[in-house]
Amino acid sequence: MVYKHEHTHLKNHDNLVKLLCLFVLCLHWMNPVAYLLLFLYIDTAEIVSDSVAVDGCTKEKRQDYAKLLVLEASTSDIRPAVWKNNLSGHKNNKEGKDFKTLKRRINYMMKEKRKGMLQRGIMVAVSALTVVASAGTVMAYQPVASSDESFEEVIFDDSIEDFGLNDIDENLDDDLIRSLDFSQSDCVYIDSDGNQIACQESEDTYALCTHSMAPSSFYTHGRNSSGGCTVKIYSCQRCEKCGYRANAVLQSTHTYVTCPH
Fold first, then answer.
1. What is the pLDDT of residues 15-64, one digit of tens each?
2. pTM
3. 212 neighbors 239 (Cβ within 8 angstroms)
4. Could you tell me if 60 and 157 are in contact, meaning their C-beta atoms sit under 8 angstroms apart?
């Protein structure tokens, strides 16, 4: 009967499937359904193997097999690897999960009707639920719109002076541009409340941030070889939590013969 039990594990490739379940658990360790999937498969694999082992046996033979499982469970002190097949599990206290699992296995094998197909159906349903829940975890994060220009790759060149005053928007407040503080960084934000925020190049975007985007203006400052400077003004969206920038649109370019900053 023990050989039939282990042969069923090999026939059903239970070791491989357990490794796959463990891999899913490593990928989705924050998803409680992934833990449920691994637990149910381990439980189901043992119940199915027990059902094959006692198939066609008398009640007395089933009782002998159940006693063997209890004896093995009471003498084993080594915690088995999760991907291995274990006849009775490892030793635990009487209120532990392993003895409850063993009790459930014995109840199944003592019944004439086999419950293996029902257990496998439950396992398939949980597998499908795991896939759906994993997709829901991804969709829980709001997609962030891509920017049409990378701020990390803004290049300032002396040839930009060729644009002269033609690129200056007369409606912009020149006093505001002159009052910008570029002492800490050549990149400055101005939020909807008019607050200036220096942008540090080492500022990292949090990968798991759900992004609370707010309208903002972005100013870049570059010194020219002639002693002047060039200020580019962008409209963009900025995350109030992590500082992520998106949807940058160049509004105007201002070139000063003498840098006022």
1. 888 888 888 888 888 888 888 888 888 888 888 888 888 888 888 888 88
2. 0.43
3. yes
4. no
